[in-house]
Amino acid sequence: MSRYSRIAGTGGYLPKQVVTNDDLAKRVETSDDWIIERTGIRRRHIAAPEETASSMAEIAARQALEAAAMDPGALDLIILATSSPDRVFPSTACLLQQRLGVRSCAAFDVQAACSGFIFALSIADQYISAGNASRVLVVGTEVNSRSVDWDDRSTCILFGDGAGAVVLEASSELGIMSTHIHSDGHYQDLLYLPNPASNGEGSGNDESRTIRMQGSEVFKVAVNTLGRIVDETLEQNGLQKSDVDWLVPHQANIRIITATAKKLQLPMERVVVTVDEQGNTSSASIPLAFDEAVRDGRIKRGQTVLMEAFGGGFAWGSALLRY
Ligand code: COA
């Protein structure tokens, strides 16, 4: 009998504080019109000083567990994607495990920048389909605001904070159909966050602590790469574009999202868009968007969902699933 990973529950958390484009225009030379036209972003949520990747992850995770009617103690595995961990070590997954009051199940982080959630989902799916785990919590959580240079108008407009989670359960019913992950480290200098604690770039000044990006180069590669991964995913599953009910993309830029929807010949009503309200929450963006569309009733059981992401590395990937 086939063994699938089925999404049993979803959860999400956004910090209370909202920063609008007009707020940013008070600090850097930009405007609401410019930001909306180039990115589709109107506002983003920013974590309070006491909030961290693990504290936000806990709220999203508890919601997902509740939706799945599952006790945290039943989990076999916790996989958490983040590029803004509370500590370099131990993993933020271990901190989340403690917050959930669980002991002994394996818990580890995955770092694949904005594609982290897809990479984490892919690993979770391999564990479940191989029979090595039956109940897995997968989380994407980010406090990007702590890595942003708030005086750099080309990056500070893009990012936001938040956390999203799904609980996967082994099932004989169709769930995740396939995942596809790729990386190309040759592009590492186009989008990166230095680590001041390492000996490579550790001068300790402000510049060595914030996100560096060549935006227009990232944009071009992202659009082409996402087009290719959509083809790869459909081909492997023998599906047509018309078989996809929903696209849940990583939320980096509305123009990148629109290009992928066009490639899929999918009307924008079938694309879950949160970038306008949340900005780019990196590895949290897909589970946050998925949770929103499940909770408001857009995505229904039995529908076919394509998730895709692209980010620093470059690292990119997709997941096709029956919800
Ligand atoms: N407000 C006003 N002007 C801005 C600005 C801002 N916030 N940010 C940059 N500009 C200016 C630039 O300085 C440049 O001015 P110049 O022509 O005088 O040098 C001009 O706008 C064009 O800059 P460019 O970087 O070519 O703009 P763009 O159309 O590529 O838009 C991004 C910039 C960042 C919005 C866009 O490249 C992007 O979204 N890229 C993808 C980034 C991304 O998604 N990263 C995460 C991947 S997971």
Provide the low-confidence segments as ranges: none
**Count of DSSP H/I helices:** 10
Indicate the overall shape: globular
* CA distance, first residue to last residue: 19 Å
Overall number of structural domains: 2
Protein architecture, described:
By secondary structure, the chain is of the alpha/beta class. The protein folds into two domains: 4-173, Thiolase/Chalcone synthase (Peroxisomal Thiolase, Chain A, domain 1); 177-322, Thiolase/Chalcone synthase (Peroxisomal Thiolase, Chain A, domain 1, 3-Layer(aba) Sandwich). The chain has helices at 21-25, 32-39, 53-67, 92-99, 116-129, 153-156, 215-237, 254-263, 275-278, 285-295; strands spanning 4-13, 17-20, 43-46, 77-81, 106-110, 135-143, 161-171, 176-183, 191-192, 212-213, 246-249, 304-311, 315-322. The protein has a five-stranded mixed sheet, sandwiched between helices. A four-stranded mixed sheet has the order 8-13-12-11, sandwiched between helices. Helix 3 (53-67) packs across helix 4 and helix 7 packs parallel to helix 8 (254-263). The two termini are 19 Å apart. The relative contact order is 0.19.
Question: Any chance you could write out the topology, listing elements then pairs?
Answer:
Blueprint: E1 4-13, E2 17-20, H1 21-25, H2 32-39, E3 43-46, H3 53-67, E4 77-81, H4 92-99, E5 106-110, H5 116-129, E6 135-143, H6 153-156, E7 161-171, E8 176-183, E9 191-192, E10 212-213, H7 215-237, E11 246-249, H8 254-263, H9 275-278, H10 285-295, E12 304-311, E13 315-322
Parallel strand pairs: 4-5, 4-6, 11-12
Antiparallel strand pairs: 1-7, 2-3, 6-7, 8-13, 9-10, 12-13
This protein binds coenzyme A.
